[in-house]
Structure formats: C-alpha cells, structure tokens
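Fold it.
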Amino acid sequence: MAEIWAIILAAGESKRMGSPKMLLPFMGITIIENVIANVSGSKVDNIMVVLGADRDSIVKLIRTKAVNYCYNENYKDGMLSSVMCGFRNIPIDHSAVLVFQGDQPLITPKAINSVIEVYLSSGKGIVIPVYESKRGHPILIDRKYRNEIQKLNPAEGLRSLALKYSDDVLEVNTDVAGILRDFDTYDEYKNEINKIH
C-alpha cells in the first residue's frame, strides 16, 4: 500500500497577526507543534512541512520531530504556491496527500482518520471534511491530481480543483469544529486561548 502524506502549510507571513503565528504558544507548546502532534497521532504515514517566512525559527522547533520540510521560495505568492511546493517535494509514489494549514491546531487525529478512512473505502479522489455544512481542512487529494495541482490558478487556489472535479469529491461530516478554526488575528487567537483556560 502506497503511503499517505500530510502537507502542513507553515510558510505564511502572518501579516494580520502581527507576529509569527506558528510560534505562538498553544496548549503548552506552539501552534505548529500542536498541528504536527495531531497529524502524527493519526493514520498519516509521513509529514512534509512547507516553510517560508520565519523559516529558521520554525526549523529550530521541528527539526527533532519525525517530519520532513521544504522551503517555498515563492511563499509571498500565496497559499497555493506552498501547496505546489509540498507536492513537488514528496515521493511520486504516494497514494494520497492531506493538506493542512499550519494555524489549525484544533483538528483532531480522529477527524483526520475519518477523512482517510472514507478515502480508502470510497474510491473518491478528493475527500473534504464538513462541519455544520461548511467545508474545512484537511483536504485529501489522490495522487492522480498531482500534476493538475501544478496547473491551478493561484487566484482560485485548491478549491478550484474540487470544483473542476466535483464528481470525484466526497464530503465527510464531522463533529470537530476545529476543521474550520484558524487564527488570522491576535483577537481570534486570544479568544481561543480564553476558551481553553
């Protein structure tokens, strides 16, 4: 059985946050470490972290973990450029890839596994978790779309793949609200911290 990879997008500039959000404390460790821990606790076989802004600081945190990482020199071009970079840097013989945003530490291993299990049992090429009718992350993409991803329009991003191949998309309902939660501003981050404590 070919391996299932995770690509964790950790290349953004955190402009709206005002400081590198991957490095913010969250539940005793940093946000990016939480994301890695959740993915590591799932049925994912291998992890590729895509770095850009704040690369050196993030590498210091993750270099002892069981992850691979690559550098997206085009990270200022937006999220899709990091998705493309991640796909270019994983072995070609994978079976599927789950794409995570590095600022979503509330996606549980259980939610990740439900996406993988539906992929393995359904034969669908794109599997997307849904919470209360809203699509979230991680998006699972079969290897057959590997080359297609490199041709996507950066303005439309990964969603355009699901639109173009809508017949091959399967939504998975989950009770994990964290599939929708990311932190763009300090207020959003603070609100989440206050909920936990």
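The chain has seven helices and ten strands.
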